[in-house]
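[Q] Does anyone have a clean structure-token version of this?
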Amino acid sequence: MPWILLLIAAFFETVWAVGLKFTDGFTRFWPSLGTLAALIASFVLLGLAAKSLPIGTAYAVWTGIGAVGTVLCGIAFLGDPATPARLVCVGLIVLGVLGLKIA
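[A] Here you go.
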């Protein structure tokens, strides 16, 4: 169950990170509210997962999945560049996250 909570937390991390793009510096009410709600959900779920998982592993996996999700959403929906170097770096993050899960 803690790994499922951690995956959901990482999903919400991606949501709030991408949501920052739409808040216009937190001057737009609804995007700001949604971003803050996702941020709170992400942290609460991370905290719950960290009760059973090593904190270093939980935080690194949460950050890694959130970073990869944010990069991929940026590429897919926001026109961010998908250069080979960026994709290799994303792949390295995925390998690191998988390594922490296995270890």
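[Q] Thanks! Anything notable?
[A] The chain has a mean pLDDT of 96.
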